[in-house]
Amino acid sequence: MKSVILAGGSGTRLYPVTQVVNKHLLPIYNKPMIYYPLSIAMLLGIREILFIVNPEDLPAFQKLFSDGSHLGMSISYKIQHKPNGLAEGLILAEEFIGNDNVLYLLGDNIFFGHGLIDVLRQAKEELEQYGGACVFGYYVHDPERFGILEFDETGRVISIEEKPKKPKSNYAVVGMYLYDPEAVEIAKSIKPSHRGELEITSVNQVYLEKGKLRVKLFGRGFAWFDAGTHDSFLEAGEFVATIERKTGLMIGCIEEIAYRNGWIDRSQLLKLAEHLKKTDYGKYLIKLAEEGK
Fold first, then answer.
1. Bridge-partner residues for 162, per DSSP?
2. Is the CB of residue 204 less than 8 Å from the CB of residue 160?
3. How many CA atoms lie within 13 A of 125 on its CB side?
4. What is the CATH number of domain 2-262?
5. Considering the entire predicted model, what is its pTM?
6. Smaller CB count within 10 Å for the chain: N or C?
7. Which residue spans traverse the membrane (predicted)?
8. Going by DSSP bridges, is the β-strand pair 147-151/157-162 parallel, antiparallel, or unpaired?
9. Cα separation of 64 and 135, whole Å?
10. What interhelical angle do 182-189 and 200-209 show, nearest 10?
11. Closest CA to 166 of 140, 139, 148
């Protein structure tokens, strides 16, 4: 399995700051926002990553991640010249995806919860066995803002509606999707919505109509932040800060994950920590390496 992470767009909901800085590079507490979705892919053991980025932001992402070899990974980039909808990223990633399954992530979505990776691993195994697609639902109080799932009396999903005026449930589809390779052709086949965009909901709807869409619901023990607004951006930072202060453990620390996955060794971890040694982040990495002596 490979992973495609959407990190383009104009970030208008976070203006004026995003007029000069890509929102995915803004800090959620002590690390760039983009670290959090990347960490999800890494925790699933995915080493091949494609970032979809704006042309003007490409140098910044390359400076941050290079080719990923320092993390034992392969990281590449694809330019999105204009934000034409979330589903367009699948088309842009066609060559990268090839015949592989893909974890498709929105760069401004942050997830946390005990057992989160277990849920994702199960979904990944089901995808490998049965194909199709899997999406994840989360209960929200403002369903008008999201793609919303509708269920029948048995709990089976019967529809997905994008930003409904009259929501049929409170379960939103979060910005994390598992697809088989057919997703690329499906994305090519859909038509732009009334907003003029290729909607990811339209892709999911096709899978649903084919009887190939599975849904897993995140319960109360999970946290999900769509950090694309000022309030949710602030909430996400406060949440991460609280967890890290209480536990002494970091969320979304990509160097730690690479080390624990066995993709880099202790000396490589210390090398990565060297230029960060005056920061709490660097000290955390050094402590991690010392514990592994």
1. 147
2. yes
3. 6
4. 3.90.550.10
5. 0.94
6. C
7. none
8. antiparallel
9. 29
10. 110
11. 148
Residues in the chain: 293
Q: If phi over 0 gives left and psi between -120 and 50 gives alpha, with beta otherwise, what is residue 29? A: left
Q: Which of 75, 79, 135, 72 has the alpha carbon at shortest distance from 109?
A: 135
> Residue 67 has which token pair?
């080719």
CA distance 176 to 233: 18
Contact 87, 164 (CB under 8 A): no
Pairing of strands 109-113, 27-28: unpaired
Provide the residue-wise pLDDT of the chain in tens; the chain has 293 residues: 999 999 988 778 788 888 888 899 999 999 999 999 999 999 999 999 999 999 999 999 999 999 999 999 999 999 999 888 999 999 999 999 999 999 999 999 999 998 999 999 999 999 999 999 999 999 999 898 888 999 888 878 888 988 888 999 999 999 999 999 999 999 999 998 888 789 999 999 999 999 999 999 998 889 999 888 899 999 999 999 999 999 999 999 999 999 999 999 999 999 999 989 899 999 999 999 998 65
Read off the tokens for 250.
């970091």
CB 6 within 8 A of CB 225: no
Domain limits, the chain: 2-262, 265-293
Look at strands 27-28 and 213-218 and give their pairing.
unpaired
